[in-house]
Design a protein that fits this description.
This protein is of the alpha+beta class and 345 residues long. The protein is 67% helix and 11% strand. Strands 1-2-3-5-4 form a 5-stranded mixed sheet, with helices on one face. A hairpin with a 2-residue loop joins strand 2 and strand 3 (287-294). The longest helix has 74 residues, at 104-177. The protein is rod-shaped and about 160 Å long.
Length: 345
């Protein structure tokens, strides 16, 4: 009821009644002044009150009627403006409104039409950018797949392929020495077994890279647990996993952290010769802390033998940098390797 009496139609009627009231008071004041000062015969107190009462009653009905009729056009135009704004709110930016009166409402309508045209152009631009982004994402994905395939092909050629070739040569030599020099044949077969174990480790690391590179909708703790369980079945590594269950990270951060852990485990499988791995992920104040440690043979960061793991370390550092984090690594011969990453949240 309150909203009804606050509409523009009733505002018009009230404004006319206010005008009637002021006019009535003014006329009454003039007539009373003439009556007091001049006191003409034709002007009496009864005639004054009769005139004011008739004027007020007639003026009241006329004010209501005129206010109601004159506000109809204004209310209709305001309703058009309201519908136009609702259309924009619903995403219909092609809707237009036109007035011919040339007043302020016409100016507002024209400005709304211009706003609709600008919003429509912006929507087209956003859709075009979204399409371009999708195409770029597809191109980037294809490039990443090709690059990863090339890297795995190089690793297969440089590591597994050469190891298999060496195993073939050693096994053939052992067969030839089996009757003439059994001891030498036994030593060569031991080398074959060690080489086969090393080739198997290399293949496990490469297969780790061929697994899905995303979390497939799983939260980060669940994705890492699945990865660790998979490696437990394929290797003799003992894992110590400490992950906070209250982690709330963006999708991009979770993907990068998952890939960092995946890359570090690949390095451990291929180069560390470790028996135990510790992974800790926790949120400390305003940063995400990631700690990865192994008890492997380690390496000297200052010498060339670190080049074997340089690609993986470089990839992990680049992912940390993309998240605005810091990457630090500690390692010495026969003392294992320790990686600490801090990412602001």
């Amino acid at each position: 009821m309150k909203n009804r009496f606050s509409s523009i139609r009733y505002s018009y009627i009230i404004s006319h009644l206010n005008g009637l009231f002021l006019t009535t008071v003014t006329i009454l004041a003039i007539l009373l002044s003439i009556f007091v000062l001049i006191s003409p015969d034709w002007l009496t107190s009864n005639s004054i009150y009769l005139f004011i009462i008739l004027y007020g009653l007639i003026g009241f009905f006329i004010s209501v009627y005129v206010g109601f009729r004159s506000s109809g056009d204004m209310k209709q135009r305001m309703d058009y403006l309201s519908v136009q704004i609702t259309q924009f709110a619903n995403g219909n930016y092609q809707s237009r409104i036109y007035f011919n009166e040339g007043d302020e409402l016409t100016r507002i309508g024209n400005e709304l039409n211009e706003l609709g045209a600008k919003l429509q152009n912006q929507v087209k631009s956003l859709q075009r950018l979204a399409d371009e982004k999708a195409e770029l994402a597809k191109s980037a994905h294809k490039s990443a797949v090709i690059e990863e395939r090339q890297r795995i092909a190089r690793d297969l050629h440089d590591a597994v392929s050469q190891q298999l070739f060496a195993l073939t040569m050693l096994s053939e030599a052992a067969i030839k020495q089996f009757d003439q020099n059994p001891e030498l044949a036994k030593e060569q077969m031991v080398e074959v077994a060690n080489g086969a174990l090393q080739a198997q480790t290399e293949m496990r690391a490469l297969l780790l890279h061929l697994r899905p590179v995303h979390l497939s909708g799983d939260p980060l703790p669940k994705g890492i647990e699945k990865l660790v369980e998979e490696l437990k079945q394929k290797s003799q590594l003992d894992f110590q996993l400490h992950i906070s269950e209250e982690l709330k990270l963006s999708e991009a951060t979770e993907e990068h952290v998952f890939r960092i852990i995946q890359e570090s485990l690949s390095n451990i499988l291929r180069h560390a010769n470790a028996t135990s791995v510790k992974i800790e992920i926790a949120k400390r104040s305003n940063e995400l802390f990631l700690h990865i440690a192994d008890n492997g043979k380690g390496f000297d960061l200052r010498h060339d033998n670190a080049k074997k793991t340089s690609y993986g370390l470089k990839t992990m550092k680049e992912r940390s940098d993309e998240l605005g984090g810091t990457f630090s690594i500690r390692s010495n011969i026969d003392e294992g390797t320790y990686i600490d990453i801090r990412i602001p949240c």
